[in-house]
Structure to design on (414 residues):
């Protein structure tokens, strides 16, 4: 059962020829990665969506319609509620803490929308997370919109560790004249790790390199380029602007990867050095990082899934290599009673009670139990059920990604 987001590892050879940084499904970097990136690739970062509000309309925006321009909050895939006015803050964040605990989070990435549309809320969650998990719990934040710069020292004092700015494409080559110039200077001044994160837009290598030059001179810590990819919210826009898929197997936009590599090669030619992951040996080195679409969508997400699956797995579920969970379903025919089916399993078929679970008008059980019952002629009819194997994400929403009818089709060609 393949992970639905899992693309093949893209060919590594052309990249290795550049002698650039390390290889994570096509991701490459020079310099030392910021802690936000290091924890992200372990799947150890909680994704904290603090609001869908944003005053930009980027043509490549990947945020789903259910979230965009709405004041909603999510901790990973779990909907949580912003505190009401006057509500004691500490007790409010139970679901947030619960989600952190379920992935054994080492940090959080605060995103949106634009979190700085709601800076008071960002301050609250930074304080709450640091109070609960301590000073080493690493928090980074993405922001694009203009905001009152007084918030930068306030958020630093609240526990924010890293600010990732997202300037408009038209500002890449004129950063000193952009709104972000003063914000970057202030973030550097107060001691935040200060970076820029952008989608890697094909053909923009010259402008991105100019921005990297600017950032390094400004005393910032790095530049992160995400491989541009198609998603439901942006596919119409990207096609309208003439962008094409890189291949049939991934969501990557053609040319984005090549642009990222050209930026890295250009940075190397300027004296950029390969980093030592996980060490501070080159801690003064400015990082330029290309984060590939397969890495982001498959490996990073898979690591987070595995962390969560281990904590939420029921005793009868199997965890796949991709971190999804598989269990058997016995669905009573119309008018049937799942409680009676469960009783029959425990009594007539001697299935251990902890492997039989009545949920959503059906019986959920171990995949091997469902397969065995379905393999015996007449048993499903006797129980009055249809049966299948269900594969779900180990998230709060438990999205079903694959359903395999039982009995399994005979694949023996002999
Ligand atoms: S700033 Fe971010 S959230 Fe806002 S429109 Fe652009 S990509 Fe979307």
């Amino acid at each position: 059962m393949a992970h639905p987001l899992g693309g093949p590892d893209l060919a590594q050879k052309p990249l290795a020829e550049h002698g650039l940084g390390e290889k994570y499904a096509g991701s490459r970097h020079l310099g030392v990665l910021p802690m936000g990136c290091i924890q992200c690739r372990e799947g150890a970062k909680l994704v904290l969506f603090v609001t869908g509000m944003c005053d930009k309309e980027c043509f490549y925006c990947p945020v789903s319609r259910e979230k965009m321009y709405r004041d909603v909050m999510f901790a990973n895939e779990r909907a949580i509620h912003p505190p009401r006015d006057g509500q004691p803050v500490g007790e409010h964040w139970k679901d947030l803490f619960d989600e952190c605990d379920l992935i054994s989070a080492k940090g959080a990435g605060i995103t949106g929308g634009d979190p700085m549309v709601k800076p008071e809320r960002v301050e609250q969650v930074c304080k709450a997370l640091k109070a609960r998990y301590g000073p080493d719990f690493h928090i980074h934040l993405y922001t694009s919109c203009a905001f009152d710069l007084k918030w930068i020292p306030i958020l630093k004092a609240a526990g924010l560790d890293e600010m990732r700015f997202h300037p408009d494409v038209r500002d890449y080559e004129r950063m000193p004249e952009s709104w972000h110039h003063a914000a970057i200077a202030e973030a550097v001044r107060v001691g935040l790790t200060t970076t820029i994160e952008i989608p890697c837009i094909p053909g923009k290598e010259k402008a991105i390199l100019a921005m990297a030059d600017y950032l390094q001179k400004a005393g910032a810590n790095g530049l992160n380029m995400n491989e541009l990819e198609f998603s439901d919210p942006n596919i119409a826009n990207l096609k309208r602007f003439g962008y094409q898929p890189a291949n049939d197997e991934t969501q990557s936009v053609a040319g984005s990867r090549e642009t990222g590599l050209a930026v890295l090669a250009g940075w190397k030619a300027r004296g950029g050095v390969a980093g030592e992951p996980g060490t501070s040996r080159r801690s003064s080195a400015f990082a330029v990082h290309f984060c590939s679409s397969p890495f982001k969508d498959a490996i990073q997400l898979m690591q987070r899934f595995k962390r969560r699956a281990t904590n939420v797995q029921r005793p009868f579920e199997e965890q796949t290599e991709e971190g999804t969970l598989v269990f058997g379903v016995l669905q009573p025919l119309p008018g049937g009673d799942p409680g009676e089916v469960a009783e029959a399993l425990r009594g007539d078929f001697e299935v251990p009670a902890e492997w039989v679970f009545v949920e959503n008008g059906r019986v959920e059980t171990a995949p091997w139990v469902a397969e065995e019952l379905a393999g015996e002629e007449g048993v499903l009819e006797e129980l009055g059920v249809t049966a299948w194997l269900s594969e779900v994400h180990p998230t709060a929403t438990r999205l079903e990604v694959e359903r395999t009818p039982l009995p399994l089709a005979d694949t023996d060609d002999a």
